Automatic annotation (TrEMBL):
<dbReference type="InterPro" id="IPR051532">
    <property type="entry name" value="Ester_Hydrolysis_Enzymes"/>
</dbReference>
<dbReference type="InterPro" id="IPR013830">
    <property type="entry name" value="SGNH_hydro"/>
</dbReference>
<feature type="domain" description="SGNH hydrolase-type esterase">
    <location>
        <begin position="5"/>
        <end position="196"/>
    </location>
</feature>
<dbReference type="InterPro" id="IPR036514">
    <property type="entry name" value="SGNH_hydro_sf"/>
</dbReference>
<protein>
    <submittedName>
        <fullName>Arylesterase</fullName>
    </submittedName>
</protein>
<dbReference type="Pfam" id="PF13472">
    <property type="entry name" value="Lipase_GDSL_2"/>
</dbReference>
Length: 212
């Protein structure tokens, strides 16, 4: 399988402890690749700050909607598209409620499915992964001032909304929040342990998808 992982900094592998990037074998994408072995190809397409559909007034090129089709076509044929976005959508500067954020996911999924030619046998196959919720302790972190006071609350609310959107669009869905939490450094990025847990859980889910 060619597995395209389309996400934000938590797919890119931002290390909240030092502001750099986790090594490949530490990122959930690399862990997933190692578990799957050489028969499958995990493609990393994580970009720090990426949203589902929102244009960031401070930084260019961060709307997933603008890049999903070029990304799919770059890496075709795709057997499975994993979308893990939403953390950045909770920023106060976008003024989007949890419900609006879920509509952004819906639009992104529909655009990806429209590009069916990029999927093997023209059959879109998508797994939506809900981003780990931003912990309430973020109010004690420096990034709180750019994320905004409502980011944590919205990050929890989008989980059931994302599940509903995924099911309505015929997508697989996974919520990692019962198994892992964000780091103790900034409360919104994945720790080493969370990357490990996510990689292993996604391996289990993908193995089930392959056997259907």
């Amino acid at each position: 399988m060619n597995i395209l992982c389309f996400g934000d900094s938590n797919t890119h592998g931002y290390n909240p402890e030092n502001g750099k990037r986790y090594e490949r074998n530490e990122r959930w994408t690399g862990i997933l690749q190692n578990l799957l072995g050489d028969s499958d190809y995990v493609i990393e397409e994580g970009l720090s700050g990426r949203t589902t559909v929102f244009d960031d007034p401070l930084y260019e090129g961060l709307s997933g909607l603008d890049f999903i089709i070029p990304t799919l076509m770059t890496h075709e044929p795709i057997d499975l598209l994993i979308i893990m976005l939403g953390t950045n959508d909770t920023k106060d500067r976008f003024g989007a409620s949890a419900e609006v954020i879920s509509l952004g996911l819906d639009r992104l999924i529909k655009k990806a499915k429209f590009c069916e030619v990029a999927f093997r046998n023209s059959k879109p196959n998508i797994l939506v992964v809900a981003p780990l919720p931003i912990r309430e302790e973020i109010k004690n972190a420096e990034c709180y001032y750019t994320m905004g006071k409502s980011c944590s609350e919205k990050s929890y609310k989008i989980i059931p909304l994302y599940e509903k959107v995924a099911k309505e669009n015929g997508c697989h869905f996974f919520d990692p929040s019962p198994f892992a939490i964000c780091s103790d450094y900034d409360y919104m990025h994945l720790s080493n342990k969370a990357h490990e847990i996510l990689g292993k859980k996604l391996y289990e889910i993908i193995s089930e998808i392959k056997n259907k």
